[in-house]
Amino acid sequence: MNLTNQIEATKDQFVDFIKNYPKNTPVAMMNILKFKEKSGNGEETGRTAYNRYSKNMVDLLAKYEGKVLWSGNVEKTIIGDSTDQPDMFLVVEYPTAQHFADMATCPEYQVLKKDRLIALEYGGLIANTHV
Questions:
Q1: Which of 13, 28, 80, 107 is deepest in the core (most CB within 10 A)?
Q2: Are 1 and 110 in contact (CB under 8 A)?
């Protein structure tokens, strides 16, 4: 597993998601997170910076009707490459892809996401529909 240098969507990835995700359908965003040993500012761990980001995101998530469905720390990879396993998984649900896009592009998020950027070595994000 290659968990490095992917923290933000490219413009093309973001536009493709908004254009092609099923309209008026809830989206569960699976976050695959690997923290930096030292955050981008070098004064704390990546996990500490991410915890601050999570705490500061509570009100913004509520504003855009997002809710955390599940989060957990990775303890052990049973099947697959365990040499570079993620540290945490987090699933956040939004009523629609547009709710997520509106949140991700709002001015408040642009300020808060700085802690996410300095915290992560890898921050994969996978959009999921319910089955």
A1: 28
A2: no
